[in-house]
Amino acid sequence: MTAILEVNAISKHYRRGDERIVALADVSFRIEQPTVTAVAGPSGSGKSTLLSMLARFDQPDSGHIMIDGARLDSIAESGLDQFRNRKLGFVFQQFNLVSVLSAVENVELALAPQALPKQERRSRAIAALEMVGIGHRLSHKPTELSGGQQQRVAIARALVNRPRFVIADEPTGSLDSKTAHELLDLIGRLNQQMDTTFIIATHDVKVMQMAHRVIRLEDGRLI
User: Fold this and answer.
1) Which residue of 81, 124, 135, 154 lies most exposed, with the fewest beta carbons within 10 A?
2) Cα–Cα dist 8/47, whole Å
3) Distant-in-sequence, close-in-space partners of 168: CB < 8 Å, separation ≥ 6
4) How many domains is the chain partitioned into structurally?
5) What confidence tens digit (pLDDT) does each residue in 123-153 have?
6) Beta 165-169 vs 197-202: how paired, if at all?
7) Number of neighbours of residue 145 by Cβ within 10 angstroms
8) Residue 209 forms part of a structural domain
9) Closest alpha carbon to 39 in 200, 163, 211, 209
10) What is the pLDDT of residues 160-216, one digit of tens each?
11) Beta carbons within 8 Å of 115's beta carbon, 6+ residues apart
12) Neighbours of 39 (CB within 10 A)
């Protein structure tokens, strides 16, 4: 397996008045393709900062990150949206679905930056929803779906562009135990079927148990 992600000695700190807060301190690791990696640690350990760096919503003060052979700090601002759209998928704890849109329309949003015919966008969105087992709920809006179904829509949206890498922030955090177990089974199956790498920030022991690897952070440092 080849490395899709290389994190090389990244550090990040913030100022709070006169206080210097260390968010990440000299963090290095590699993730191979295709695997599932859990990033674990207590609140304030640096998980969210790390995920933000991987998506290049923020940048390290030192060190660098490479995803699929591209050094993130070398990508021009004008090319970031295209890079994220084609290489990365995102799944969030609170789903982040648009309440006035149907399930299929929410998934189509991820295809909006591409110059695709309307019919092709619709067919690809339907295929993604069928892939996650929710093809029978295409026209339902988020308020008409359970939490688990909403998270499946969010996963379909993350995967519709067939990215190499999916970043998930506490994807089971809003789900009951049974639904969380079903979701993790789905992620494991998609990882194998699509050769998609998942990195999941989590407090959930079940996520850590199903992951191929667990990266543990505490006070911004690998432990």
Assistant:
1) 81
2) 16
3) 90, 91, 92, 158, 187, 198, 199, 200, 201
4) 1
5) 999 999 999 999 999 999 999 999 999 999 9
6) parallel
7) 19
8) yes
9) 200
10) 999 989 999 999 988 999 999 999 999 999 999 999 999 999 999 999 999 999 999
11) none
12) 27
Q: Which residues is 197 bridged to in the sheet?
A: 165
Q: Are strands 197-202 and 213-218 parallel, antiparallel or unpaired?
A: unpaired
For residue 45, the enclosing domain spans 36-62+72-222
In a domain, 150, yes or no: yes
Identify the CA nearest to 213 among candidates 33, 62, 50, 56.
33
* DSSP conformation letters of 32-93: EET-EEEEE--TTSSHHHHHHHHTTSS--SEEEEEETTEEGGGS-HHHHHHHHHHHEEEEET
Query: Does residue 197 belong to any structural domain of this protein?
Result: yes
Residue 198, both tokens:
């998942």
Q: Is residue 30 part of a domain?
A: no
Distance CA 115, CA 107 (A): 16
Query: Within a 13 Å sphere around the CA of 165, how many CA atoms are in the beta-carbon half?
Result: 23
Q: How far apart are CA 205 and CA 31, in angstroms?
A: 20
* CATH number, residue 182: 3.40.50.300
